[in-house]
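Hi all, posting the design record for the shared folder.

TITLE: backbone redesign
STEP: 1 of 1
STRUCTURE INPUT:
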């Protein structure tokens, strides 16, 4: 598989004035993506909203794009991506929408052009399959799950 250098993006009409997803600093892992709205969306505390981005992507086979929260929105407002990380599969060609949820105490207003999430292209192991057997090899951790290492 060759190294991924670009992802084709199709801009929809309601994103005509928005930037392509982009890294805000040279060391950023994620590319911020903006809301493409005809009118503001208010997300009440405890509620969620599907926010359009105005872009469709052609993701090469063997890759996905993960949709992750923006840390500032989570910290300052309690707003995050509900299904984080969301996955955009390589064969999906529709408009990317971000499922935001407001875990904060106040209504959150999403405006056209607000940076709402970050996209991270990731290479996937597409040649692996699940195979059933009667055992799994032991490790030091064993079956220790949620909270097994303490606080």
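Okay, here is what came back for every position:
SEQUENCE:
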């Amino acid at each position: 598989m060759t190294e991924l250098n670009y992802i084709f993006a199709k801009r929809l009409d309601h994103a005509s004035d928005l930037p392509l997803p982009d890294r805000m600093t040279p060391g950023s892992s994620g590319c911020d993506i903006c809301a493409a709205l005809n009118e503001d969306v208010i997300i009440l505390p405890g509620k969620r909203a599907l926010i359009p981005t105005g872009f469709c992507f052609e993701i090469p086979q063997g890759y996905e794009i993960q949709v992750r929260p923006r840390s500032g929105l989570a910290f300052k407002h309690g707003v995050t991506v509900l299904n984080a990380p969301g996955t955009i599969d390589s064969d999906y060609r529709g408009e990317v929408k971000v499922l935001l949820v407001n875990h904060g105490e106040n209504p959150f207003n999403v405006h056209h052009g607000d940076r709402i999430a970050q996209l991270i292209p990731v290479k996937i192991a597409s040649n692996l399959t699940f195979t059933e057997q009667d055992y799994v090899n032991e490790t030091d951790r064993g079956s220790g799950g949620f909270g097994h290492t303490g606080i």
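COMMENT: The longest strand covers residues 115-123.
Let me know if anyone wants the other runs.
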